[in-house]
Amino acid sequence: MKWFFILSGLIACTGKPVRSSCPVKMSPSRVVVRFGDPFSVNCSSPSNQIQSMGWESPYGTGIGRQDGVSSVSLKIDSVTDWDLQPLCFINLLDNNQCAETLSVTVYKMPDSVSMSQPSQMGPMVEGEKYHMQCDIVNVAPVRNLSVSWHKGNKIIYTEAFDKTSPSPVNTSSVFTLTAQRSDNGTQIWCEAQLEFSPLVPNLHTILSKSHEVVVLYSPTFTKPENETLELRAGSKIILDCTARGNPMPVYSWHFPNPIQQTKKNEKENQHILASSIQFPGTYTCTASNTQGTKTKTFTVVEVTRNRTTLAALVGVFLCVAALLFIGGFFFVTPEGTFSFSKGSYLRGQPTSSGPV
Ligand SMILES: *[C@@H]1O[C@H](CO)[C@@H](O)[C@H](O)[C@H]1NC(C)=O
Ligand SMILES: *[C@@H]1O[C@H](CO)[C@@H](O)[C@H](O)[C@H]1NC(C)=O
Ligand SMILES: *[C@@H]1O[C@H](CO)[C@@H](O)[C@H](O)[C@H]1NC(C)=O
Ligand SMILES: *[C@@H]1O[C@H](CO)[C@@H](O)[C@H](O)[C@H]1NC(C)=O
Ligand SMILES: *[C@@H]1O[C@H](CO)[C@@H](O)[C@H](O)[C@H]1NC(C)=O
């Protein structure tokens, strides 16, 4: 039956080349329906030359020829076939016959969407490549499936499938991730979606479980690799050896001076040293973890060029203090400030007096 109508349609077209298609209109013009759901379609013709019309469907759900009508509707209670191709046919008074196939897409949402990785999701190592797989079970039609990979709030990869099977298949998408330190702590998941146009309402996407990425990486200093610092009388020096790494780096220090070396033990595994630096020289800090060791050098130099300025400042303070003392105003406060500056200045003097 089906082939008969197609053949007659072709003959009709060859006989009258001007008419490129059958004078029928389908409403809706294409159908996207979930397996098991109902649908109905109207086929109508504007022609006034109709002898009969009907629907032909290979699964016996069609309705036969109806004489003297200008529309026929096909109603299917439950779609139970993946490849429905119903034909609306028309017989005209001049004995021409033609038919048109209705486009029906039968879909089924996946039973499951899951993500797997060969190394069973253990920690990753920076710079290494990891193949991650997203398995989609029992989905139809696969040519309308879109799989997207998400990392944090970004889509990092989207895959479409060009297989044409109308019935459900199992398929998978493979994404290769090159582990970066910035990936540590982010979530990765895949998402399956059926895409139709026009969009079918309430077609949800299906998400895999998300996986938290852990990336191991060697320590990197947050400040410049090496630093040069100036030791000034009365001011504090801060040696900042803070490094980022996974696992968390452990720190150790090396001091230039034997006296400070004895204090070293209490400084072990601190990332910042403050205050106690009193001697110029080269201080080193190492930050290490399972992925590597990095060394940072702090060169502490003593500042001597400001000596005259400082002396001048002290002189001014002395004068002010003297004036205030004479005037009898606020004796205690200026004296206190003065004593502090002087004390610090004098303490630095013995180590630096040589070259001057
Ligand atoms: C089909 O067309 C008939 C007549 O125009 C109308 O009564 C009916 O509601 C239509 N059915 C559909 C499913 O569009
Ligand atoms: C898809 O996978 C499921 C479960 O893994 C299995 O039961 C089913 O037979 C597979 N289907 C096809 C078409 O291979
Ligand atoms: C790496 O991620 C883990 C898990 O979220 C977190 O506990 C850890 O602090 C992170 N490490 C770094 C250095 O970002
Ligand atoms: C299904 O996907 C194909 C290929 O991307 C597309 O041509 C077709 O229009 C889609 N089907 C529907 C009903 O949108
Ligand atoms: C830091 O200093 C050390 C020793 O002085 C040197 O070997 C290293 O190359 C320096 N690193 C940088 C980044 O300058």
Automatic annotation (TrEMBL):
KW Zinc (keyword) present: no
Gene3D superfamilies: Immunoglobulins
Transmembrane segments: 310-332
Domain Ig-like, residue spans: 110-193, 219-299
Signal peptide: 1-20
InterPro entries recorded: ICAM_N, ICAM_VCAM, Ig-like_dom, Ig-like_dom_sf, Ig-like_fold, Ig_sub
Protein keywords: Membrane, Signal, Transmembrane, Transmembrane helix
A GO term, aspect molecular function: integrin binding
Protein's GO biological process: cell adhesion
Protein name, per record: Ig-like domain-containing protein
